[in-house]
Amino acid sequence: MIEPTAGVFDGREHQLPVRIYYEDTDFSGIVYHANYLRYFERGRSDFFRRIGISHTALHAADTAFAIIRMELDFKRSARIDDALLVRTTYDRVKGPRLYVSQKITRGDQMIVQAAGEAVCITLDGRPRKPTAEMLGQLAPWLGAKD
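Now predict its structure.
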């Protein structure tokens, strides 16, 4: 069985290729703005997957993540058949919060960039600090620690 790609790392940056399909576009033929959030989610999830943090294992340990802030800055439009690269960097952890920087590029062109904040929570929605094991897996990829 051929497994889907979970992307690759270039230094601290995780890179996930994404192809734009007809279903991603609106009536004008450009990517519908909300779809960029989906691509960013894939980037964050596959970042974790590549460093050995499984969402299935997190769920079994009564742990999940919720995005509590996402600031987007749109630069250009993407269109059908474009080959994009979702670039994800986890910057720091402070208590239950994880700060993430993301961008989507087409070659050398910036399409959209994002600054996000996720919070580690229990499955009933209460904040909790990431486990020591999770922090150990994430530590080599962080920029600054608080």
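The mean pLDDT is 94.
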